[in-house]
Structure formats: C-alpha cells, structure tokens
Write a structure and sequence with these properties.
The chain has about 270 residues and is of the alpha/beta class. It has twelve helices and nine strands. It has a single domain (about 65-270), classed as Vaccinia Virus protein VP39 (Rossmann fold, 3-Layer(aba) Sandwich), CATH 3.40.50.150.
C-alpha cells in the first residue's frame, strides 16, 4: 500500500481519482478506467471520508470523458502531436486515450505527485513524466518545439494565480507553432461554489482564477481563439444524464436555459 502525504491543491487529486475509479466500476461506465480503480486499491487512504456523492462522481466522470474526446480528436487530426497533460495528478488519460507511438505525451505535476505516479502506474513508451510545478516555466525547455501541441488541464487552472496562468498560456502559444488548449473553467459564482465544496475545503486548497466570459481570455492571450464552449453534460445520451438524481437534472435544465448559470462551470476549447 502506498502512503500519502499530500495537502492543499495536491490533495485534490484524490477526489478526481476516486470519482473516476468509482464510476469505472458501474455497468454503464463512461470511463472504464481500470488503472484508476487499481490505484485506489493500492493507496493507503480511507476514501470513504471524502463523502463523494453520486452526482459529483458522475459529473467528474463526464468532464474527464469530454476532455478525453477532444484529446482523441486532436490526435486524429495531428498524428505526430505533442500532448502536455498539465497538473496530471493521478489521472490515467494517457491509458484511456491510448495515443499512437508517434505522439509525444508529457505528464507534468509536482515532484511528489510524479513520484507517486511512478509507483502506481506502468511505464509507457513515448510518455515522459516531468516533476515540476506547471507555473515554473523552465520545464517547457524539455518539450520539443515544432509539433502541433495540445494542452490538457483538468481541474487545474482554477487553482492558479491569474498572472501565473496567463504567463503559462502566453508562453505555450508562442513556443509551439499551432495547437489547442482544453480545460474546465468557472465564473465568479462557480468559483465561489467550488471553494465552498466540503471536499475542497477539507484539502485546504485555495481557488484563485475565474473566467466570466470566455472571450476575455482571447484578449489576455492574443494567440488564443475560442473554438468550443459547453457544459459538461452537453452531448450526453439521455441514459447518461438520467444517472443524475432528479434534483440535479432539474438544476441542469435551468443551467442550460440561463446564460449566467451556463457559465458557472463549463468546458473550453481554444485553438492557437
């Protein structure tokens, strides 16, 4: 069993890992992520103390599945792409997406998180682990330029100071010739709701960055152009949405109808 000593934003990886592992055990699973389930079984932690609700589990699985889909689309269009999986935590996207050997995949996170990944997951050809804070931009020197590059950031940007995030995005959009950035974002209201979530509070993590209007990021990072903005639940089959409780389905219906509520939490896809 692997013991943990994670606090703050690093500890939030337990929430997403457990959600994906639990959802993968369902007969109608979207993720079917056996690596996540195996990792939970090997970690010395009482995950029941998270008190993860079924609706939260489903929402986190849908978010991951949507980002997986965009990742596959980018790789299908660019068979020799570079993928930068920022703040990767213990997510097993590289195994779920299963990119071809021509793709150069980089997992980037704090040294203690990368050390834990090495213990829990098998090595994979053309997947390199970089032990660094994503905001220490020196790590980018390890990534070859000249290839179409996809930046994937799930559950990360909301914890970064705005100045650090903008510096990261400006560097990426100038260092690489073309690519996309895909991530989840929250309005001011959404960020406040995340900060009040009992699981986030228990980690001690601080939420920092919100985005009320997606076009604002285009002005702050001139190389970015919005391609897609959607709610996590968009494009899902009725059977998948039906997994939510009745109350959540009613709330989702209201969020779809009212623009301010649609922006509470959504998925964004920019090209550069």
């Amino acid at each position: 069993m692997e013991k943990l000593d994670l606090t703050g934003v690093k500890a939030t990886l337990l929430i997403t890992l457990y959600a994906k592992a639990r959802e993968s055990c369902l007969p109608d699973s979207l993720l079917r992520d056996q690596h996540a389930a195996d990792a939970v079984a090997r970690i010395d932690h009482d995950f029941s103390t998270l008190h993860l609700r079924d609706d939260e589990m489903i929402g986190l699985a849908m978010r991951a599945h949507a980002l997986d889909g965009w990742t596959r689309e980018f790789i299908d269009a660019h068979r020799e792409a570079t993928v930068l999986h920022l703040g990767c935590g213990l997510d097993t996207r590289v195994f779920r997406v299963d990119p071809p050997p021509e793709v150069a995949w980089f997992e980037v996170d704090y040294p203690e998180v990368i050390a834990l990944r090495r213990k829990l997951y098998p090595d994979r050809a053309n997947c390199r682990l970089i032990a660094s804070s994503v905001t220490d931009l020196a790590w980018l020197a390890q990534v070859p330029a000249g290839r179409p590059t996809l930046v994937v950031a799930e559950g990360l940007f909301l914890y970064l100071p705005e100045a650090s995030l903008l510096a990261l995005l400006r560097t990426v959009t100038t260092q690489f010739p073309t690519g996309e950035v895909i991530f989840d974002a929250y309005s001011d209201l959404g960020l406040a709701l995340v900060a009040r979530n009992r699981m986030i509070r228990a980690t001690g993590a601080t939420t920092r960055w919100s985005l009320n209007h997606s076009q604002d990021l285009e002005a702050q990072v001139p190389g970015l152009k919005l391609r897609t903005e959607q709610m996590v639940q968009e494009g899902r089959s009725p059977a998948q949405v039906a997994r939510y409780t009745l109350l959540s389905r009613v709330l989702i219906g209201w969020m779809r109808r009212l623009a301010p509520l649609r922006r509470v939490g959504r998925l964004l896809r920019y090209r550069f």
